[in-house]
Amino acid sequence: MGRVSAGPAVRRRTILERLHGDGFVAVAELAKHLGVSPMTIRRDLSCLEAGGLLVRTHGGAVKSAAIDALFGFEQRINRNRDRKERICRIAARFVEPGDIVFIDCGTTLYRLARFIRSVPNLRVITNSLPLLSELGNERSIRLTLVGGDLVAERKALYGRMAEAAIRSVHADKAFIGADGVSANGGLTSFDEKEGGISGGMAAAADRVFLLCDSSKVGHTSYYRYGPLSTANVLITDRRPDDETVRAFDRQHLEIIHA
Fold first, then answer.
1. SS3 string of the chain?
2. pLDDT (tens digit, 9 = 90+) per residue, 66-90?
């Protein structure tokens, strides 16, 4: 018996959820997942674009800032929870006593807090309010929250003040995120504010760890905040395909997967 294709409401909700979690959707992948033609997906994307919820790109779409208002941080934090925890458990191994570290905002980076709270004499610099809540009472951790403009749905601080604060300090390591990472596109974000913070942290650190799940590997989002060489290590939940591994290796990006 053939697969029954999803109706318009289910398709569009799926598209929005994927966009919110990953920042990018591909027409071909959605068509296969939802059991419909690429033309049907393109019509769905056009409809959602008309509502201001995404921006069409070649072969897919990236999310607009408006989409974040549809989903709360608390809801997003539980999406792909096991995948995020595996990534952060690995990342925590690189945090050493006495380190100064940048930690980017986002639901994956937030989960790093639970694995580093016992590291002695640690200094953490972040723009994430949830990270402040998680680590603010740890006596062994000195935490610095950069100032800036609050984006409530992201629970983080952005803008020129935040970026200037990051440029004025130095860290041993930066743990950053991305909405897309690819050999040609480099490190990309769905918007300039997030990209400015991630890129600033990377530039002000000796070693840069990129934490993102496998759905973002090989994809390119809207705003390019740095070449692939911006990061030293990619930590993800599964090994990319051989072609991607070779391409990343040529640009000296080490891959660690759960």
1. CCCCCCCHHHHHHHHHHHHHHHCEEEHHHHHHHHCCCHHHHHHHHHHHHHCCCEEEECCEEEECHHHHHHCCHHHHHCCCHHHHHHHHHHHHCCCCCCCEEEECCCHHHHCCHHHHCCCCCEEEEECEHHHHHHHCCCCCEEEEECCCEEECCCCEEECHHHHHHHHCCCEEEEEECCCEEECCCEEEECCHHHHHHHHHHHHCEEEEEEECCHHHECCCCCEEEECHHHCCEEEECCCCCHHHHHHHHHCCCEEEEC
2. 666 555 555 566 667 788 999 999 9
